[in-house]
Design brief:
Layout (H helix, E strand, L loop, with lengths): L8 H16 L5 E3 H14 L4 H12 L6 E3 H16 L1
Antiparallel strand pairs: 1-2
Amino acid sequence: MTLDTVRNPAALIEITELVDGLLDAIDGELTSRSRVVDGLLDLRLAASDLPEVVAQVDDCLATLPGNTTVTNLWWMETLADLRTAASN
């Protein structure tokens, strides 16, 4: 195992806890776009030691749907994808 493949366990725990909190906050069918952006930026900061996760968050920010709201389906799928990316 090289240094490049070693994961920071604290970062993984922080990302998992953030994702759990963001999922718990989902209610209804839509979430405000600003809340989604805030969540993605929090995840980006927590994943600073995981460049592949940072890149995925950046992609999500660049392709974020909606002008004022985001469907919760998209948000939940995105959070699940980011959790998986962090754990792989």
